[in-house]
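Changelog entry: the Large ribosomal subunit protein uL23 record was regenerated in this release. Current contents:
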Amino acid sequence: MVTEQFDPRMLPDLIRRPLVTEKATLLLENNQYTFEVVPQATKPQIKAAIEELFDVKVVGVNTYNPPRKQRRIGRFAGHRSQYKRAVVTLAPGDSITLFPEV
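Regenerated structure tokens:
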């Protein structure tokens, strides 16, 4: 298996934001976190970005491209922005604080 090297300056730009939905909060019980990532990001890049940003050990990465949905604003028809969803499974004992205490 060939280990890919990534430019560490580009990794934080791959992760857009954590997704907090009902399904994503249920996955937190299994130590799985859901993030919105750029559509061009690959699984090894997502793994490297999460490990570097949050200082955790990633066991697995699952990705999902939701279908484009058509939207209409008045007489103009278009599509919603395209995004990719990544479900990241962390090693036992690791966790990410999505809502830090103030």
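Strands lie at 15-18, 32-37, 58-64, 70-73, 76-79, 84-90.
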